[in-house]
Every structure is written in C-alpha cells, then in structure tokens.
Amino acid sequence: MDNAVIQAEQAVLGAILYDNALMDACALLPEHFSTVAHRQIFTRFKALHQKQIPIDPVVLSQQLGDQLQQVGGTDYLMDLINSVVTTANFSFYERMVLDASKLREAKDKANQFIADPTSDGIAELASRLDELSNPSDIGDEMTDQESLMKIYDSLFKDRGEISGVTTGIHNLDKMTDGLQDEDLIVVAGRPSMGKTAFVLNIAKAAAESNTVVDVFSLEMPKISIQQRLLSALSQIDAGKWRNPKRYMNADDIERLITAMGIYSTWHLSIHDRPQQTLASISQAMKQSLKTYPDQKHVVIIDYLSFIKVTGRYERRDLAVGAITSGLKQIARSDHVPIVLVAQLSRAVENRQDKRPMLSDLRESGNIEQDADLILFLYRQSYYDKTSRDHDHVELIITKHRNGPVGTVQATFIKEQATFLNVKKKKKEAVH
C-alpha cells in the first residue's frame, strides 16, 4: 500500500476529528479509503454526522464497540487528532484520497478484463477508464466571492454581437445569443427535413468565424460530409457530385477549387468512424481542446441513434438517457456546446398540424430532461407538394433553458445543402 495514500487518509480522518464541520462538504465515501480500518472509521463518521452527534474519540470508541481494536484502538484515534496542525490543506488530502481510489478501481477493472476478455468488455472498460481519468472535482467549486467577482467582471466585458457560437442564422443567433458553452442542443425533425444540412450549416458558419469544429458523422462518410460543405461554400448543386466529370463545368471546378482553399484553412475535423461511444467522443474532444486550447469549440454529432451504448439496459429509453446524460456531462466538463441530431417518431404524421412537439422525440423524456435547447425543423412543402414556399423552413425552439422559445424563419436551398437567412421584403412605394 502506498504510504503517501495512507498518510493522506490519516490527514483527512484527523482533520474531521479536529473540526467536525468539514463533514458538511466532504465528498468522500467509505469505499474511497484503502484500508478496512479507515473505511470502518469513516463509516462511523457518516453515521454520527447524519444523527448530528459530535465526532470525537470517546463517542467513536463507543460506536465501534468490538471493532475498536480492529481499527487500532483508542490510541490510534487519539494519534489521528493529535497529528493535525491545521485543516487548511483538507481539500488537498481529500483529492489525494479520491484520486488514489480511482487508480485502484482502474487497476481492478483492467484485471477483470484480462481475466475474461470480451468485445463488450473492451467498450465497457474504455468507457469506465475514461470516466475515471477525469480529474476529481473536489475543491473545484467556486466560493460565493469568486462567483460574484466573475459576475462583476462580466458587466464590463464586451462579448460582441453574440456570446456563443454562431449558427449562421441571424435571427436564431439573436434568440439564443449563439450556441452556449456547456449546453446540449438537440436538433430534431422527420426524415428529409434537412437536419444534417442544418447542423453542417452550423459547422460552416462556426468554422468561418474561427471556431474549432468537431463533427462526429456516424451515418455518412467523411468525403460525403466534405462534399456537402464544399457545395454550400461554392453554391454548387450537390447533385453534380454524382458524376463531376459529366455535370460540372469549368466555372464549377474553379469555384470548388477556391472553396477547397477556404476549407483547408478551417479548424474543422470530421470523425466518421462508425460505432462511436461516449468514451471515444470524449477522448477526441479532449485532444481537440489540447490542440486548440485558446479558441471557441463546438461539437456536432449526427446522430443520436448511432451512438453505441456500453453496458446493458433493460429498455431503449434508459440507454438513450445514459447517452444524453453523458453528453451533457461532457459539455459541462469540457465547457463546449454539443449539437446532437435526433429523430422524431411517426406520431407527427397522424396529426393534422404536423409541426413537431416535445412528445414526438423518440424516448422523449430523457432527451427533454438533459437538453438545454431543443430545436425542431419543419417544412410545410414536405407535406404539401403544391406549396409555393418550397424553400421555406421553420426552426422551432420548443425548449430553451436560458432563453425564449419561438419560431425562426429560414430558407433551405436543398440543392446546395445550405440554410440562408430570410430576406426582408421591400415595402412597396406609396404613390
């Protein structure tokens, strides 16, 4: 057993004996301690604290009873409290204890996999090791004074027109102030509504504003995504990619070459490996943040149903809940907005007004709970083939944790896989 870990555990236990109030904010559990004796002592700490009984060697000795000698006796309890000079370093030792516990668990998980290696076991091991690799958040919470100072400083900081990542749609940016760090943004719609084109429009607009973009395309290969982005950038009909030699003229080629030059300057990465897990997404994100530490980031995932679930769940909605909850945690820990594409159920088709509602989300309960912003795409022309507004699309915000809900109008140029702002109509002159 690492002597430094034992000493850290002794420092934690002694500090609590010295100042019982430390239990109020202590994040440790009995299983975080490495020895049976320390686990037994801390278990008694929690029981006494819950009952609001003073935690001292005399009371502990009574509570431990026959187990007293197993933990070292009264002398050991007195040594713990007498060794404390100050409690100022309590958070430091608390963090040491928790980090050591994580390392022990990681070793145990690895040994379990070695003893019984399976394909599912690899994914589960990777997912758990990724969770354990995250630094402990003990001591990371801001004090009231620190948070108030942040609020005060923000009063004098110019954030520009919007504080978040641009979507490329001005009215949507006005309503949301851009895509905000730590938010999980769900973009949903029925098939052929333009979901992928819309999130790629976000990717393009963000990249053009020098934001680092990570696109996880779990359905389409990288080349197809790049072709869509180049079509939007060069305003060339995406259908021409079926046979460029035959359908593209000299002007198209010239515009595409120019678009490729612009694309090459973007900090945009496309991850098209199928069967992505939360662990692999998190790992790629951490690498991106490490490569570009001082820039804005946005993550786009297309789409929810193709994220591989690790572990076993009795129902699909529980599995979806684990994914959306995990993505929200990644967004918070990495301080980035995550845009997640989701599918709607067929219930929409059974209504006269086919505009989506929250209940139309597949496994809607968990998605609705975890998302900070939910945006639906709706095109009337999809259902009414005689509609003159075949390019018109409604961007319907049905949930916005930190802002208003409502509908934004936009134009969808399907042939170029791009979304545009609606042009204001000129007022007719009065004669």
Secondary-structure map:
Elements: H1 3-18, H2 36-50, H3 57-64, H4 73-82, H5 90-115, H6 119-133, H7 144-154, H8 170-176, E1 184-189, H9 195-208, E2 212-217, H10 222-234, H11 244-247, H12 250-263, E3 268-271, H13 278-291, E4 297-302, H14 316-334, E5 338-343, H15 364-370, E6 373-378, H16 380-383, E7 392-400, E8 406-413, E9 418-421
Parallel strand pairs: 1-5, 1-6, 2-3, 2-4, 4-5
Antiparallel strand pairs: 6-7, 7-8, 8-9
Helix pairs in contact: 1-2, 1-4, 1-5, 3-4, 5-6, 6-13, 9-10, 10-12, 13-14, 14-15
Bulk shape: elongated
Distance between the termini: 92 Å
Q: Helical segment tally?
A: 16
Low-confidence stretches: 425-431
Mean pLDDT: 87
Description of the molecule:
- The protein is of the alpha/beta class and 431 residues long.
- 46% of the residues lie in helices and 13% in strands.
- It contains 16 helices and 9 strands.
- The protein has helices at residues 3-18, 36-50, 57-64, 73-82, 90-115, 119-133, 144-154, 170-176, 195-208, 222-234, 244-247, 250-263, 278-291, 316-334, 364-370, 380-383, and strands spanning 184-189, 212-217, 268-271, 297-302, 338-343, 373-378, 392-400, 406-413, 418-421.
- Strands 3-2-4-5-1-6-7-8-9 form a 9-stranded mixed sheet, with helices on both faces.
- Helix 14 links the parallel strand 4 and strand 5 (338-343).
- The longest helix is centred in the N-terminal third of the chain and has 26 residues, at 90-115.
